[in-house]
C-alpha cells in the first residue's frame, strides 16, 4: 500500500504487480473483454510497447491468438540481465570502464540471478515473492517464436537494444518466422532523442515522428 508519510516510496501494490506474468495476463484479459463487448473486432489487433512495454507487448501476443501485429521499441529480447551485461561490455570496449571493473560487474550480474533463483536462501537480498525480478529475465525472443503475429523490432543505434536486431531477425528467419522486420535509427538513444557527435543527448530533437511514420508504413504493408 501507499504510505503517505513516505511519499518517495513506491506503492507496494505496484511493486507486487510489476511482473511480466501479471501484466501480460491483464493485457490478454483486456483484448478479450474488448472483443467480447464488441468495442473492437479481431480483424487487426496491434500490441505496442517501448522498453519494458515491448516485452509486455510480445508476451501478450504470445498468449492471445487475436493479436495480428506487434511493435517492440528498444526492448531486451534476451532478458534484462543479458541487456545489462552487454551494456557493461560495451562500456569496457569504449574505455569508459577498465577490464577489472567489467569483470566485477559481470560477477555481480551472475550472483544477482543465482540469488533471485533461490530467494528462500537469500532473504536479505530478495523476498520470497520475487516474480517481478525473474519474469523480466525471460527471453522475449521465445515469445516472438510463439506468436504468428507480424513483428516490428525498432531500436536506436545509441541504445544497447540495437545489438540484437541482426540476431533477432536472423534467428527468427532460421526458425521459419519470416514476418518479422527490424529497423535501426541512427544516432538516437533509448527514447529516440538525438545523440550528438560529442555523445551528448540533445533533448530538443527527437525522432518520434519518423518512428511512427515507419510503424504506420509497416502496419499498412501487412494488410496487403
Q: In a nutshell, what does this entry contain?
A:
The chain is an alpha/beta fold and 224 residues long. The protein has 2 domains: 12-79 and 138-221, 3-Layer(aba) Sandwich (Rossmann fold), CATH 3.40.50; 80-137, no CATH class. The protein is 46% helix and 14% strand.
Helix content: 40-55%
Number of domains: 2
Oligomeric form? single chain
Q: What is the alpha-carbon Rg in Å?
A: 19 Å
- Which stretches of 5+ consecutive residues score pLDDT under 50? none
Largest sheet: 4 strands, parallel
CATH architecture of the largest domain: 3-Layer(aba) Sandwich
> CATH class of the largest domain, please?
Alpha Beta
The fraction of residues assigned to DSSP E strands is 5-15%
Put simply, the count of helices is 9
- CATH fold-type name of the largest domain: Rossmann fold
Overall outline: globular
Taking the alpha carbons of the first and last residues, their distance comes to 49 Å
**Secondary-structure element order, N to C:** HHEHEHHHHEHEEEH
Number of DSSP strand runs: 6
Mean residue pLDDT? 90
CATH homolog superfamily of the largest domain? Alpha/Beta hydrolase fold, catalytic domain
Strand order of the largest sheet: 1-2-3-4
Alpha-beta classification: alpha/beta
Amino acid at each position: 500500500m501507499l504510505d503517505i508519510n513516505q511519499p518517495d516510496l513506491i506503492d507496494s501494490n505496484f511493486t507486487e504487480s510489476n511482473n511480466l506474468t501479471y501484466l501480460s495476463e491483464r493485457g490478454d484479459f483486456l483484448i478479450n473483454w474488448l472483443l467480447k463487448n464488441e468495442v473492437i473486432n479481431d480483424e487487426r489487433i496491434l500490441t505496442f510497447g517501448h522498453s519494458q512495454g515491448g516485452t509486455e507487448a510480445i508476451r501478450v501476443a504470445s498468449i492471445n491468438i487475436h493479436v495480428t501485429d506487434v511493435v517492440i521499441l528498444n526492448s531486451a529480447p534476451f532478458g534484462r540481465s543479458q541487456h545489462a551485461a552487454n551494456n557493461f561490455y560495451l562500456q569496457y570496449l569504449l574505455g569508459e570502464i577498465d577490464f577489472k571493473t567489467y569483470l566485477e560487474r559481470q560477477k555481480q550480474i551472475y550472483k544477482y540471478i543465482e540469488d533471485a533463483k533461490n530467494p528462500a536462501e537469500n532473504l536479505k537480498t530478495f523476498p520470497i515473492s520475487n516474480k517481478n525480478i525473474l519474469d523480466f529475465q525471460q527471453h522475449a525472443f521465445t515469445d516472438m517464436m510463439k506468436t504468428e503475429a507480424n513483428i516490428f523490432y525498432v531500436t536506436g543505434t545509441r541504445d544497447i537494444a540495437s545489438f540484437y536486431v541482426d540476431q533477432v531477425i536472423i534467428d527468427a528467419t532460421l526458425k521459419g518466422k519470416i514476418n518479422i522486420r527490424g529497423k535501426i535509427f541512427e544516432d538516437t538513444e533509448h527514447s529516440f532523442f538525438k545523440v550528438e557527435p560529442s555523445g551528448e543527448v540533445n533533448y530538443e530533437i527527437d525522432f518520434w515522428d519518423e518512428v511512427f511514420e515507419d510503424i504506420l508504413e509497416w502496419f499498412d504493408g501487412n494488410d496487403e
